[in-house]
Design goal:
By secondary structure, the protein is of the alpha+beta class. About 35% of the residues lie in helices and about 15% in strands. The chain has 6 helices and 5 strands. The model has no long low-confidence stretch (mean pLDDT about 90). InterPro entries: Ankyrin_rpt (IPR002110), Ankyrin_rpt-contain_sf (IPR036770), Ubiquitin-like_dom (IPR000626).
């Protein structure tokens, strides 16, 4: 059994191990069923150490969930997210940027086009799904469309 609490000590939930495969699946479930932010803004701690999303959950343990704010990112990182969203096969790089955690709606100053829009325009379904999972909003306009 996994026991998950908030840093305050308040118990959030207990889940059978058989229902989860890894930390990523647990974070996704906490988002869906318990109103936690998307997995990119969650950190699960075991004995004070953050667990990577790929860690297998194969033994009973007590975990704490920490919610982190979006990181301040550089223009270079925003530009990198744009190029990764625009390019096919850069899913791992998009994932790494979102793990900072980076706002999935961060547009760079050069193009002003949101990552979700450029990924969808280029048919990169996996990137679109990842950005949506990270909380990208479909109702946000590109910076280039806003004008003065």
């Amino acid at each position: 059994m996994l026991h998950i609490s908030q840093l305050s000590g308040e118990e959030l939930t207990s889940l059978p191990l058989a229902e989860l495969s890894d930390v990523k699946a647990l974070k996704q479930r906490l988002h869906r069923q318990h109103g936690m932010p998307p997995r990119f803004r969650q950190r699960l701690l075991h004995e004070g150490n953050a667990l990577d999303d790929a860690v297998k959950l194969d033994s009973a343990m007590d975990l704490q969930v920490l919610i982190v704010a979006f990181s301040e990112v550089s223009e270079q990182q925003r530009r990198e997210l744009y190029y990764c969203a625009a390019s096919d096969g850069r899913l791992a790089e998009v994932e790494a940027l979102l793990q900072l955690p980076m706002d999935p709606d961060a547009a760079d100053d050069v193009h002003g086009i949101l990552p979700l829009r450029i990924a969808s325009q280029n048919g990169h379904v996996d990137v679109v799904e990842l950005l949506l999972e990270a909380g990208a909003r479909v109702d946000v306009r590109d910076l280039q469309c806003l004008g003065p």
